[in-house]
Design a protein that fits this description.
The structure holds 2 protein chains of 2 kinds.
Chain A lengths: L2 H9 L3 H23 L2 H18 L8 H22 L5 H5 L15 H19 L3 H12 L4 H8 L3 H21 L14
Helix pairs in contact in A: 1-2, 2-3, 2-4, 3-4, 4-8, 6-9, 7-9, 8-9
Chain B lengths: L1 H23 L5 H13 L1 H19 L15 H41 L13 H18 L4 H6 L11 H11 L5 H17 L7 H14 L1 H8 L6 H14 L1 H5 L3 H5 L2 H5 L1 H7 L18 H9 L5 H8 L3 H12 L3 H28 L1
Helix pairs in contact in B: 1-2, 1-3, 2-3, 4-19, 5-8, 5-9, 5-10, 7-10, 8-9
Classes of the chains: A mainly alpha, B mainly alpha.
């Protein structure tokens, strides 16, 4: 069954069909949520909440890109989590230093253990940099450069104009570049140097 | 010239910095792209920044994907659960609406009951149709002043006053006297009315809320247009015997309001009874020296006497009686409903309580879900 048929079936209340769509998109949704929130629990909550909301809101889906529509719901759930986190301050910095990424990587068979460890460190360093960005810029950078969304798709997901996407991406990338230049030692040796 | 060039160069530099990201992605218009390329040739800083930016983007692309900690598939019952949730939300909305409607009905019935309860006890029962609540309370407060003035029961007093030569005093004058007399005992009638209301409430099954509408409506009515209401309130006694008989019967039904106030006023509102006396005598003096016998009686009795004597007065009550033509029948019908009203009120109150409880329960359950 192709995506459109699954969406149509799910609209009629077919949970099985919707679950197939979830299986297709849950890694993407969780990764976006994790990179935006930098908290596995909050990211899982946001992802689950987004899928429940999406299933409920499906009758309102008016065609177009299902992926962009779904990701919009995911990002909204992320913003909800961010607001909630703002209300009760983050547990502690130590939690973030013990990086939860290490056990949660998607395994790539062609990768050597060393390469894999380096990529984990890279992910950690980048995440620290992303944490420094304002949420809008962070989300745009995540969608564009980690998930490979086009400008048009990002505009759809975040409900802003192409111009806004362009400027958010430009500022976010420049900020991240400056951060990595300052904190170069965080990067695995293989990924240095950041030229200047 | 050099400054201008320098200025334009800085602008170019800043624009280039902003465009580097889109330049990397090939998202610039051809002209912008050419401009950035031109600037890059001249500016080593921008070239370095572009390289660093490109490297950053490549690092971002190399960031490993994470494995979700668990599957997010929904239970097969999710569709049913959401249908139930939707039904519950709808039920909540309906319950809220039903509670509101029942509450409004209860308030209407209770206030209607209060109006019915207090109007028939007085002689002018039929007329207040135009302004049932307002005149009802005015009628109430007016006779109370009489009662406090005269130790005799109300019906007797009604027959006594006709004797005094109040006839010469014209209707407007009576209204004047009424308005004059009003301000002084302003407080005593109110409190008396309240007392009566409370007693009446005790007599019936009604709750305390009943007294509130009566009082609330009564106060503005008394202060707003006393002369009008009094003129209108006075005529009813016109047909002396048949009407009074009916009112007496009605009074007998709600005997308490008319009889009970008598003992209580003797204790507290004694000062008010004294104050209206001198004032009443002061004002009526100019027209005729009539008020001598019992001046406080003048507010109500004169029109009663007038109707038989002066030809002008009768048309007024007649017209007023006619204008609310269909009303008396309706009024009688409403009065017929009176006995069941307490039961209706009880049922409605129960309904409101149950609906409210159900609404709150559902809201709490929804919040938990």
């Amino acid at each position: 069954m192709d995506e459109q048929a699954l969406v149509a079936a799910a609209r009629r209340g077919d949970t099985q069909a919707f679950n197939k769509l979830i299986l297709t998109y849950q890694t993407l949704a969780y990764n976006v949520a994790y990179r935006t929130l930098h908290d596995p629990e909050a990211a899982a909550d946001a992802t689950q909440q987004a899928f429940i909301s999406a299933f409920r809101a499906l009758p309102k889906f008016r065609g177009g890109s299902f992926k962009a529509w779904l990701l919009r719901i995911v990002t909204n759930a992320c913003y909800d989590q961010l607001r909630r986190a703002k209300r009760r301050p983050a547990s502690s910095l130590d939690d973030m230093l013990v990086d939860p990424d290490h056990s949660a990587l998607l395994t790539d068979e062609t990768e050597s253990p060393e390469e894999r460890a380096e990529r984990q460190d890279l992910g950690y360093a980048i995440q620290r940099g992303l944490d420094e960005l304002p949420p809008d810029q962070r989300l745009t950078v995540v969608l564009s450069d980690i998930q490979g969304f086009s400008y048009q798709e990002i505009a759809e997901v975040t409900s802003v104009s192409l111009g806004t996407v362009k400027s958010r991406l430009s500022r976010g990338r420049a900020r991240l570049r400056d951060y990595l230049q300052r904190q170069e030692e965080l990067l695995p040796r293989r990924y240095r140097p950041i030229h200047r | 010239m050099l400054g201008f060039l320098r200025g334009s160069w800085t602008t170019e530099h800043r624009r280039c910095q902003e465009d580097l990201s889109a330049f990397l992605d090939g998202q610039l218009t051809p002209s912008d792209r050419a401009r950035v390329q031109r600037h890059l040739k001249e500016c080593a800083d921008c070239r370095a920044d572009l390289d660093a930016l490109r490297h950053t983007v490549s690092l971002l692309r190399a960031v490993p994907a994470l494995k979700p900690p668990r599957s997010f598939v929904l239970p097969v019952t999710e569709a049913r659960r959401q249908r139930q949730a939707r039904r519950q939300r709808l039920a909540y909305v309906y319950l809220q609406a039903a509670t509101a409607v029942a509450t409004v009905l209860l308030v209407l019935v209770v206030s209607g009951d209060a109006v019915l309860r207090y109007t028939p006890a007085q002689p002018g029962a039929r007329l207040p149709v135009a302004h049932p609540p307002a005149t009802a309370v005015v009628l109430e407060s007016a006779p109370v002043a009489e009662d406090s003035a005269l130790p005799e029961p109300a019906p007797q007093m009604m027959q006594e006053p006709p004797a005094p030569t109040a006839a010469p005093t014209s209707q407007p004058l009576a209204a004047e006297v009424a308005t004059e007399a009003l301000p002084a005992p302003e407080q005593s009638p109110e409190t008396l009315a309240l007392e009566m209301a409370v007693e009446a409430a005790d007599a019936g099954t009604a709750t305390g809320t009943e007294t509130v509408p009566a009082q609330a409506e009564g106060i503005p009515a008394v202060k707003a247009k006393p002369s009008q209401t009094f003129v209108r309130a006075a005529p009813p006694p016109v047909p002396p015997t048949p009407e009074e008989e009916s009112t007496a019967r009605e009074a007998a039904q709600t005997a308490e309001p008319t009889t009970t106030p008598l003992p209580s006023p003797s204790n507290t509102p004694v000062p008010p009874t004294e104050t209206p006396l001198p004032r009443a005598t002061d004002t009526p003096v100019p027209p005729t020296a009539t008020p001598m016998p019992s001046p406080t009686n003048t507010p109500v009795p004169p029109p009663a006497e007038q109707s038989p004597t002066s030809p002008v007065a009768p048309p007024v009550p007649a017209a007023e009686l006619e204008s609310p033509g269909p009303a008396p029948g309706l009024w009688a019908q409403l009065e017929g409903l009176r006995p069941i009203l307490p039961r209706v009120e009880a049922v409605l109150a129960l309904a409101v309580a149950m609906l409210l409880a159900a609404t709150l329960w559902l809201r709490r359950r929804q919040r938990l879900v």
